[in-house]
Amino acid sequence: MDGSRTLLEFRVEPNLPERLLPLEELAYNLWWTWNPVGIDLFRRVDDQVWEATRHNPVLLLGLVPQERLEALASDRAFLELMDRVQLEFTSYMEGETWHSRRCGSNDSPHIAYFSMEFGLTESLRLYSGGLGVLSGDHLKSSSDLGVPLVGVTLLFQLGYFQQYLNPDGWQQERYPVNDFYTLPLRRVRGEDGQPLKVALDLPGRRVWVQVWRCNVGRVALYGLDTNLPENSRADQDITDQLYGGDQRMRIQQEIVLGIGGVRALHAMGIKPVVCHINEGHAAFSSLERIRLAMADHGLSFREARVATGGGNVFTTHTPVPAGFDIFPVELMREFFTDYVKELDITFDDLMGMGRANRADSSEPFNMAVMALRNSTFTNAVSALHGDVTRKMVARGYVGFPLEEIPIEHVTNGVHLRSWMSQDLAGLLDRYLGSAWKEDAPNREVWKGVDRIPDTEIWRTHERRRERLVSFARERLKKQLVARGATQQEIDQAEGVLDPEALTIGFARRFATYKRATLLFADPERLKRLLADPKRPVQLIFAGKAHPHDQAGKELIRQIVHFARDPLIRDRVVFIESYNINVARYLVQGVDVWLNTPRRPLEASGTSGMKAAANGALNLSVLDGWWAEGYRPDVGWAIGSGEEYTDHAYQDTVEARTLYDLLEQSVIPLFYERGRDQVPRGWVAMMKAAIRELVPFFNTDRMVQEYHDRFYQRARAQFERLAEGSFARAQELARWKIELVRAWEEVAVESVTAEMEAVHRLRVGDEVPVQAVVRLGALKPADVRVEAYVGRLDEFRRIRDGEAVAMTLEKDLGEGRFLYSAVHTCRTAGNRGLGVRMIPYHTDLATKHEMGRIVWA
Question: How many domains does the chain have?
Answer without folding.
Answer: 4
